[in-house]
């Protein structure tokens, strides 16, 4: 996937897991918040199912998407977007997706091209799975401006399957602080790691 290979060229190192030192830039007011942020990042990096479902479970509310840019060329669609809870300028993650439109029905194509819906909303979170996931870490990256945070970034690339068919290649970019927003904006009375 061209868009993923360009992003991968900027990686500084590959990571298998996270540790407390990698959250040095994550501003948390308590050790409990720092531990929760670290656990949230670890859980995300191991995720093999829908990102939308994972984030919605933690927040106990609907995740929104804002499409920044979309390009269609024959049977492929490249989509650049952010997932957020309260404000698209404070996103949870940034995603670049390359879809094979020839594998999709007309309703799915229309939803991807014409509507601001998450991938999980379009295909059904329960039918999605990540295959061949690779996670890399970069200290600084061009996504810093989009995520509106500083510190290490985690760039995760994978093939996305809908039921038994590969429908897309994705690159998701997060950092501990951007993911922690799911806890900050969670519905009152919800504790993502109670």
Automatic annotation (TrEMBL):
Gene3D superfamilies: Chorismate lyase-like. It comes from Pseudoalteromonas caenipelagi. This is Chorismate lyase.
């Amino acid at each position: 996937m061209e868009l993923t290979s360009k992003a991968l060229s900027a990686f500084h190192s590959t990571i298998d897991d996270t540790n407390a030192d990698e959250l040095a830039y994550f501003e948390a007011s308590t050790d409990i918040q720092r531990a929760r942020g670290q656990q949230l990042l670890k859980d995300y990096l191991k995720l093999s199912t829908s990102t939308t479902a994972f984030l919605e479970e933690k927040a106990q509310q609907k995740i929104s998407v804002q499409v920044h840019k979309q390009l269609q060329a024959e049977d492929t669609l490249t989509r650049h977007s952010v997932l957020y809870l309260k404000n698209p300028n404070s996103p949870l993650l940034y995603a670049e997706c390359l879809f094979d439109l020839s594998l999709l029905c007309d309703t799915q194509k229309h939803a991807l091209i014409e509507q601001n819906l998450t991938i999980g909303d379009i295909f059904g979170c329960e039918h999605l799975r990540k295959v061949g996931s690779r996670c890399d870490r970069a200290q600084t990256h061009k996504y810093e401006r989009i995520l509106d945070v500083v510190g290490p970034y985690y760039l995760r690339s994978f093939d996305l399957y809908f039921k038994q068919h590969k429908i897309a290649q994705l690159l998701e970019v997060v950092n501990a602080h951007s993911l922690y927003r799911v806890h900050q904006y969670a519905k009152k009375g919800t504790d993502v790691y109670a």
